[in-house]
Amino acid sequence: MSSPLTVTELRSLLAARFPERHRKSSGAVATGVRSLDDALGGGLPVGRLTELVSATLGSGGQTVVAEILRATRRARQRVALIDGANGFVAEAVPPDCLRHLVWVRAHNAGEAFAAADILVRDGNYAVVMLDLRGLAERTLLKTAATVWHRLRHATESSPSAVLVQTTTGLVPTVPCRLVLRTPQPLTQRRTVRAALADAFVVEVERARVDALEKIA
Fold it and tell me: What is the DSSP letter of 34?
């Protein structure tokens, strides 16, 4: 893959490559992970934030990203990944599954949120993944509520499904929070990761509708 982009370079690249925004669509984007898609009723909801909590960096989040890349590649959809702590291992994914991916490596939480805001508002991605795993929890807990609300409102006007990956529940009033449980440590080789994804157990936490309406 080419070198990661800075936020400024990303903005310029998107403006040149995608001058026209896509219209917002409804529906869901399949992740390729059966337990996640079943829990969400078909896939990541378009125009909504979804939080995926996995206990550690190695507890399934990388496998979820890989499966989303495979599923969206088959569907000929574009995907963006904002890598908050440089945790994505590109070598673990077949090269063909990276061709439709825009990968942004952020240097801190502020850059990660700025890049997510740009990519969600750009409107050319089926899925935007904001991976905050590996960033200091105390720093993320200090994130202003207005930052989350800005991202939520941008998502609601976008044709993208937005997945926020964390190691603890962080996103305030998120419509749907998924907690990923894995039956065994993911120490196996990458050739069996797809099979392991079928064994994931997902717990669902949904926000109350009235709580979402209060901040709308």
Answer: H
Q: Looking up tokens 């077949």, which residue turns up?
A: 94
Amino acid at 110: G
Residues 43, 28: Cα–Cα separation, whole Å: 5
Using CA atoms, how far apart are residues 162 and 126, in angstroms rounded to an integer?
Answer: 9
- Rounded to two decimals, the pTM is 0.80
Neighbours of 79 (CB within 10 A): 26
Tokens of 155: 């998502």
DSSP code of residue 4: P
Give the span between the Cα atoms of 203 and 216, in whole angstroms: 26
Region of 213 please: left (phi>0), alpha (psi -120 to 50) or beta.
alpha
Q: Kindly provide the b/e burial profile for residues 29-44, where b requires at least 16 CB atoms within 10 angstroms of the residue's own CB.
A: bbbbbebbbebbeebb
Q: Give the sign of the dihedral formed by CA 211, CA 209, CA 64, CA 96.
A: negative
Instruction: Going residue by residue through the chain, which has 216 residues, state the pLDDT in tens, using 9 for 90 and above.
Output: 555 556 666 666 666 665 544 444 569 999 999 999 999 999 999 999 999 998 765 558 888 999 999 999 999 999 999 999 999 999 989 999 999 999 999 999 999 999 999 999 999 999 999 999 999 999 999 999 999 999 999 999 999 999 999 999 999 978 889 998 865 554 444 445 555 676 788 888 876 433 333 333
Query: What is the CA angle 60-111-49, rounded to 5?
Result: 50
